[in-house]
């Protein structure tokens, strides 16, 4: 069962979108009013552990899409949680350490470039989210997902628009997913320095597009994305060799439709860069 909750980030009363005056209020004391709401904003109608889920890396031209699921410990609140995009890199990295130390459970998972090109970025994101929830050491009663749709799960789920700024567990998931992906790109830069992955995180910046034009794509680029397809076409014209755009992949288990059995779940987690609680996260 899944539901969608529409929220107004800057509505200090916490009312649903469309019920406020529509006038955006400036954040006070350097923090968004949405962040101030987090301690009292409760969208959980169930009793039991709740996980927050968010993704990082839907828009970039290269690399996997990451997703994280986090169950926070009510007895050990973490101050300063917010949407990872509005935090400085230094603050995100500090919170990344604190979340991993204090959360009851967390898991970071991914969907590969091959899966993105095979399924499309939306379905690959849903797959990464599903893997993250399934990789938790504690089974939650509810998964609260940032955005307007939920992956197929064996538990109840709730899509919350703007949830990464309103729900602490989603904020924590947002931070884990982004910091993990950023670390992966810093390491990828060492292998492919011409693209500047450590600077633009794989997004289609002028520098990245110029490098694609000059050097062509690498194996970590998403060939289903238009700028990368165009780069492959230019390579074919330049070299006189037909560039293969369709990526050959191993068969993908479409777990979006059917939840995995426990044995299959362990196998899927092992192949999806999953990082369960209390294991050292891989440096991609």
Please state the average pLDDT score: 78
CATH superfamily of the largest domain: Ribonuclease H-like superfamily/Ribonuclease H
Distance between the termini: 34 Å
Find the structural class using helix and strand composition.
alpha/beta
The amount of helix comes to 25-40%
Annotation field: number of helices: 9
Enumerate the strands of the largest sheet in spatial order, edge to edge or round the barrel.
1-6-5-2-3-4
Q: Quick one: biggest sheet?
A: 6 strands, mixed
Describe the 3D structure:
The structure is a single chain. With 284 residues, the chain is of the alpha/beta class. It folds into 2 domains: 30-186 and 254-270, Nucleotidyltransferase, domain 5 (2-Layer Sandwich), CATH 3.30.420; 191-239. The chain has 9 helices and 6 strands; from the N terminus they run βαββαβααββααααα. The chain has helices at 33-37, 89-102, 113-119, 121-134, 168-191, 197-200, 206-215, 226-239, 262-270; strands at 2-6, 50-56, 65-71, 105-111, 142-146, 156-161. Strands 1-6-5-2-3-4 form a 6-stranded mixed sheet, with helices on both faces. Strand 2 and strand 3 form a beta hairpin. Helix 2 (89-102) packs across helix 5 (168-191). The chain starts with a strand and ends in a 14-residue tail after the last helix.
């Amino acid at each position: 069962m899944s539901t969608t909750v529409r929220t107004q980030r800057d509505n200090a009363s916490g009312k649903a979108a469309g019920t406020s005056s529509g006038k955006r209020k400036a954040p006070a004391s350097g923090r968004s009013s949405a962040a101030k709401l987090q301690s009292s904003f409760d969208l959980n109608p169930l009793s039991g552990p709740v996980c927050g889920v968010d993704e990082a890396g839907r828009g970039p031209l290269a690399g996997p899409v990451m997703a994280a699921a986090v169950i926070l410990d009510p007895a050990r609140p973490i101050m300063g949680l917010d949407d990872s995009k509005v935090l400085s890199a230094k603050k995100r990295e500090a919170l990344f350490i604190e979340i991993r130390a204090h959360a009851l459970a967390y898991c970071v998972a991914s969907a590969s470039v091959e899966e993105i090109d095979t399924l499309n970025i939306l379905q690959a994101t849903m797959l990464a989210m599903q893997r993250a929830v399934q990789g938790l050491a504690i089974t939650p009663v509810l998964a609260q997902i940032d955005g307007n749709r939920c992956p197929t799960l064996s538990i109840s789920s709730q899509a919350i628009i703007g949830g990464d700024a309103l729900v602490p567990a989603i904020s924590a998931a947002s931070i884990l997913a982004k910091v993990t992906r950023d670390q992966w790109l810093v390491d990828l830069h060492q292998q492919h320095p011409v693209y500047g992955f450590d600077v633009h995180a794989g997004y289609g910046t002028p520098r990245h597009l110029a490098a694609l034009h000059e050097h062509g794509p690498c194996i970590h680029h998403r060939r289903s994305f238009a700028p990368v397809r165009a780069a492959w076409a230019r390579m074919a014209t330049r070299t006189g060799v037909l560039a293969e755009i369709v990526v050959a992949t191993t068969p993908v288990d479409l777990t979006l439709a059917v939840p995995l059995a426990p044995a299959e779940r362990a196998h899927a987690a092992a192949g999806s860069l999953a990082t369960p609680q209390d294991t050292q996260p891989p440096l991609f």
